[in-house]
Write a structure and sequence with these properties.
The protein is α/β, with parallel strands linked by helices and 354 residues long. Among the domains are: 59 residues, no CATH class; 123 residues, Rossmann fold, CATH 3.40.50; 59 residues, OB fold (Dihydrolipoamide Acetyltransferase, E2P), CATH 2.40.50.140. It has a five-stranded parallel beta sheet with strand order 3-2-1-4-5. It has a five-stranded mixed beta barrel with strand order 6-7-8-10-9. The longest helix has 28 residues. The relative contact order is 0.06.
């Protein structure tokens, strides 16, 4: 027997009894048969109690429970702290309000409790990041003053679907560049599973690769990998959910998606872009510097040859077409940085032209 059914029965009985008393009162007022009025209003009260009781008991309780489940631990702690502070302020004001003449002395303390409780919760939840940052900085300063060190464990990061499918996150996690907990939201996992179940062969393979990468990440990462059920109600797009959840948790987002990168940056969310990281760690070559490259194909312009360095950087060599499948020494003439990566233009060293 469910709790909702029990509450329906209780509501039916209570409102049926209330209907009896209401019917008797109305029958006395109009001077008619009290039994008929009592029966009619008892039946009406029982019907209303049976139908409407869940809307005043279990339904609001479930809504509140679902909302609390979706709140982050920081937001929940901030809300509870704000509630306590608001009630303390209302308690301090209740004594002078109780000295006012009636009915103000009876009404105003209750109004103050409701208003200051709401204000406390609202202020602490909206400014939770600043409040926790203040306490964190004070704690860090105190530990440093005592010689205990900062013990910085890093900030949590939310991982994007594109990063999981990309696969490089596993190797990056081995290096220690990510110092905080890697959070995998349930809606990202659902999207990955949806891609793995796609009828399109290419998407299906990408999704399965992502699931394999995620399995490796949970086993091989040097930082904790945690799955979270936190969601953003009312938002359908996964990218929008990531940005909002990152703001709520004061976390960063790991992605290689160009659009998500810009949207998150515009909303003040820290972004760790794997493509930018890969470009940043590529070798830097200056004009006139020499290097050796294997030319593997023709270039777009006449006589050009194209080769690649170990990190994937494209090298376009003038007059290199004649040296395809050969490793030749070249001299850098220009370095071009594009959104797709870094390109190096070079020419053959003296004596290598045919």
């Amino acid at each position: 027997m469910s709790i909702e059914f029990v509450l329906r029965l209780i509501g039916m009985v209570v409102l049926a009894i209330g209907g009896v008393y209401l019917g008797l009162g109305l029958s006395a007022a109009v001077g008619t048969s009290p039994e008929l009025w009592a029966v009619v209003f008892a039946l009406l009260g029982a019907l209303v109690g049976l139908v409407a009781t869940p809307f005043f008991t279990t339904r609001p309780a479930r809504a509140v429970r679902a909302y609390i489940m979706q709140m982050s631990a920081a937001a929940l702690l901030a809300a509870m702290t704000g509630l306590v502070v608001g009630l303390l302020v209302a308690g301090l004001l209740s004594f002078p309000m109780s000295l006012l003449p009636k009915p103000f002395s009876q009404v105003l303390p209750m109004v103050a409790a409701v208003v200051f409780a709401w204000l406390g919760i609202s202020v602490f939840v909206m400014r939770q990041r600043d409040i926790f940052s203040l306490f964190r900085s004070r704690l860090t300063s105190r530990l440093a003053a005592e010689g205990a060190g900062t013990a910085n464990e890093g900030r949590s990061v939310l991982i994007d679907t594109s990063v999981i499918i990309d696969g490089r996150i596993v190797d990056i996690s081995h290096t220690g560049f990510i110092s905080g907990t890697i959070l995998v939201p349930k809606f990202v996992l659902n999207e990955l599973q949806h891609i793995a179940d796609s009828p399109d062969a290419l998407r299906r393979n990408r999704g399965r690769r992502g699931l394999e990468v995620l399995n490796r990440l949970t086993k091989e990462a040097v930082v904790p990998v945690r799955f979270t059920d936190m969601d953003v109600p009312g938002v359908r797009e996964v990218d929008d959910k990531l940005v909002i959840l990152a703001k709520q948790l004061n976390a960063a987002v790991i992605t290689n998606d160009y659009n998500l990168n810009h949207v998150a940056s515009l909303q003040g969310v820290s972004v760790l872009n794997i493509n930018e990281l890969a470009n940043a760690v590529k070798a830097v070559f200056l004009h006139g510097e020499g290097l050796t490259v294997k030319i593997i194909q023709e270039g777009r312009e006449a006589g050009q040859g194209v080769g690649y360095l170990d990190d994937g950087t494209m090298v376009v060599v003038d007059e290199g077409r004649a040296h395809i499948s050969q490793e030749v020494p070249v001299v850098v003439t220009k370095v071009l940085q594009t959104t797709a990566g870094r390109m190096i233009f070079a020419k053959l060293e003296n004596g290598n032209n045919r």
